[in-house]
Each structure stands twice: as C-alpha cells, then as structure tokens.
Amino acid sequence: MIDLGPDTMSAAQAYNISISGIKICLQTHLHEDHFDSEMIISRHRDYGCEGLHPLILAGSEPTIKRVASLVGQRSDYALDFRVIEPFVDCDLGFYQITGYPANHGSVDEGCFIYMIKAGERCLLYATDTSVLAEELWQDFVKKNVKFDLIILDCTYGLGFESRERDHLAIKDFIEHVKRFRGSGLLQESGEIYATHISHEGCLLHSEYDNFALARGYHIAYDGLKIEM
Predict the structure, then answer these.
(1) Are 110 and 59 within 8 A, CB to CB?
(2) What structural domains does the chain harbor?
(3) Rounded to whole angstroms, how far apart are CA atoms 69 and 2?
(4) Which residues on neighbouring strands pair with residue 210, listed in sequence order?
(5) For residue 127, which of 47, 122, 136, 153 is within the disulfide window of CB 3.0 to 4.6 Å?
C-alpha cells in the first residue's frame, strides 16, 4: 500500500478490498490527505487488535521519525519502521524500492515519490510533486529505467500553472509525458495516468480523458484497477 490516508478504510469498504493482508506500506509524506494517524493508532492492542502481523512502514527519515514519535512502543502496534535513503535502492520483501525527493512541501519534511520494481515490472508513483528535478531524470537514465506504469500528479488543470514545492499543472504534466516517452524511460506498452486531480481548471472525466488520450496519457478515477 502507498499512504495511509483518511479515506483508506472507506475506500476499501466501497470497493470490497480487504487490506488485512497488507505487509508493506510506503508513506510518501505526512500531509493530512495522505496520512491519518488513526490508521496507526487503531492497530494498538487496546483497540482489540491481537495477533497482528508486523506492518513494515517505510519512508524518508523525517517521515519515519515523526510517525515513530506518535506511537512510542512500536511493539504495541506491530510496526517495523524502515528508513529509505533518497536515490538508494532498497529491498523490501518482493519489491525493490527507490525513494526520490518530491518537489513538494518544505525540504525538511522529506516528501518522497517512489520507483517500485517487482520482478520485471517497474512503477513510478509520483504524487504529490511539482516539476521533477533534473537530478531525478538523470538518475532514471543512469539506472536505465523502463517504466511500465507511471502515476503522476496533475493537480491543476487547464489555465493554471504548476506551483513550486506544491503540485503539477496540466501544461507541465504534458511536457513530462513527452519527456518520459521521448527519452525512452517508458516501455512501448507503458502507460501514464494523471491523478491527485483538484477542481481547478478540470473538465468532466469523459471530456478530460479524451483530452488526455490525444496527448498520450489517461485520467485516473476512484476505483480504477490496473493489472501489471
């Protein structure tokens, strides 16, 4: 799972998805729409939780330090904290994880986007972020990455500009799509999805998706399932 957001439980129930078997959670950052501390606190034995398997909770050093400060004795919550260093590949179970600094929030918050490899498949999960830093592009090329799926922030729509250390707008999003495809970082059969969509400058989904398809990507939606 990526992020323990406030709608985790309601979304799981709405789409009939059991999350009881989740063993690894990557936390991108701790803004309230991506991290709800109740998701951790409710794992405590005082809430009737017994025999839980340990949950690996991984993220940047600032993220993990802040979460650790909330819980005290991690054994009471069956948590296994893992710090991921930026740009360094990290093996977690079946997955190889690489955290990259997001262009989002203050620098000391340690906001991350993630590259996730499993077998021959490779995913880039890049929300929340504004324009990706050049050092990230260089690292992708250096590692000869070929993404099968890219999930990219596109918070602001038509008529809006990207905001530094905030979110991407559609104009820069489209330039990112062109660069991913033009630089060979996306598999020929690979796909790019826009997500984290706000109300600013956005169309109805059907109109927005037609706009996106003409430019080489898709618009995500609640309940979307993608099999890699």
Answers:
(1) yes
(2) 1-83 (no CATH), 87-228 (3.60.15.10)
(3) 20
(4) none
(5) 153
Taking the alpha carbons at both ends of the chain, their separation in whole angstroms is 15
**In a structure prediction context, what are the per-residue pLDDT tens digits for the chain, which is 228 residues long?**
999 999 999 999 999 999 988 999 999 999 999 999 999 988 888 887 778 888 999 999 999 999 999 887 667 888 999 999 999 999 999 999 999 999 999 999 999 999 999 999 999 999 999 999 999 999 999 999 999 999 999 999 999 999 999 999 999 999 999 999 999 999 999 999 999 999 999 999 999 999 999 999 999 999 999 999
- Within 8 A by CB and 6+ apart from 33, the residues are 5, 6
Token duo for residue 101: 């600094």
Task: Say which residues have a Cβ less than 8 Å from residue 146's Cβ, sequence separation at least 6.
Answer: 122, 184, 185, 186, 187, 190
